[in-house]
Amino acid sequence: MNTVKAYEEVIEFIAAGTSPGGVIAFRPSEAARRRVADLVQREKASDLSPDEKLELDHYMQLEHLMRLAKARAYRYLGNE
Prior knowledge:
Elements: H1 6-16, H2 20-25, H3 30-44, H4 50-78
Helix pairs in contact: 1-4, 3-4
């Protein structure tokens, strides 16, 4: 099965560039949310391959980055 990695969506969003409002509005797709939920559930059951563990770790790092970016974007919008 050739599954698109959930974190690639966030990378594409960052690479395309956006406004502070766009950063705040960003939400992962339903497919990405389902993929991450599946990986998290399977991680709890110790049922992830090394590649899937790496995918989940990458996504979690990018989720943290997006939270920081959203906080910064709110500050930018507050200063306009």
